[in-house]
Amino acid sequence: MERIYLDHAATSPIHPEVLKSMQPYFETFFGNPSSIHHYGRESRRGLDEAREFIARAINASFDEIIFTSGGTEADNLAIIGYSKANQHKGKHLITTKVEHHGVLHAFEYLEKQGFTVSYLDVNDKGEVAVNDLLATLREETILVSVMFGNNEVGTIQPVAKIGQALKNHQAVFHSDAVQAVGMEDIDVKSQGIDLMAASSHKLNGPNGMGFLYARQGMTLSPLLYGGEQERKRRAGTENVPAIAGMRKALEITINERDQRKEQYRHYKQIILSVFNEEKIDYHVNGADENGLSHILNVSFPGINIESILMNLDLEGIAVSSGSACTAGSIDPSHVLTAMFDDVNRSHSAVRFSFGYGNDDEQVKKAATTTAKVIRRLARL
Fold first, then answer.
1. Are strands 4-5 and 317-318 parallel, antiparallel or unpaired?
2. Rounded to two decimals, what is the model's pTM?
3. Which residues are known catalytic residues?
4. Are residues 107 and 179 in the same domain?
5. What is the pLDDT of residue 338?
6. Which of 20, 224, 248, 250 has the lowest CB atom count within 10 Å?
């Protein structure tokens, strides 16, 4: 049986060129980058080259990139690290109801530490209104966190407008850009982003690797204590092979970005055309135009999501009910619950997400199989 993977927003297969770029740092340049001898210097060179490339890719400076173990650590370092280090300026924080759990749970922790958090509503496309943000701002607000692109429905938030709105306020702007880095044009300077999280495994890089962009002058309380790596902001010997792999993955993704976006939009059209031809009852969740090209979230009214996922897996189709961090949970999606009053919309939602290795034939087969499964479950 052919298996078709359409869950790239959860994690993506490592690109062969990425694997190749990592190999020398396992075999030849294996030194600790903090060591001053030849082996350490060669490892440090790879580390510095990766940091420089990643910084240029988002219009940041070399020393504004902090390597982390992934997007969750980057988000936590930004949110908890900044809030704790700057609580003397105020203890009010703002985020949205549709953030990734790596963000929401960080804010829940801070609430237990005495901070006050305001959670912004979204419309039925998953978009935050800048006016709502402005109305929620207080003099003592120190941090605003709004994701770049949503991991469940793909909606892109008005990041540049938010950055502009906060320009004359003390609050810094953090954005979880895990799904957007490489896929969208990101310029942290022009978009007014002060803190931004990214993850390697969403763009065909290795698992367990990410970075935090922290604008120069940001004071962060570290989450880890040990050595003086990453300018004392993130202790622990840097994972140079994975960092080199993330750098290569980002390079490939950026070079192929326009082609990939067009391709993924085409995949969406294929799936929806098949559903229309098969006369399947469905609703698309998220912004039609202003959305990440690789994510398509669809609800099938009256059909239980667990039955859909189980039957599709038996047919060899790998998709998701939303965030990978809630896979297996029977709770409704917090993203779709925030977008719609109808909880049933969430209980029947499937996320298709595209990436490296997919082609038209695979996507059409997945859509046809999904239609067959939905019809069968509807009869039951």
1. parallel
2. 0.95
3. 325
4. yes
5. 95
6. 20
